[in-house]
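chain below, 78 aa
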Amino acid sequence: MYIEYDEKQLLELLKNGSYEAYTYLYKKWVPLLFRFAYSLVKSKVTAEEIVQETFVKIWANHHTICLLYTSDAADDLI
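prediction:
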């Protein structure tokens, strides 16, 4: 589906309302974000809630995403 897109392109698509890009990013990042949240809270349920709420807020505010780039490399997203 979006395998040929880089993160910058996916975020642009998300900002423009692509639910497919959102779903792709969700599936890609949930495992890593869950592990990070779990390492902080030591509760599976709480970590899952944190990650879920994060993605709910991302989708609710997708139109406000602001993409910033470093001056050294225009392709690097910060």
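The chain has a mean pLDDT of 88. The helical segments are 7-15, 19-41, 44-60.
thats it, cya
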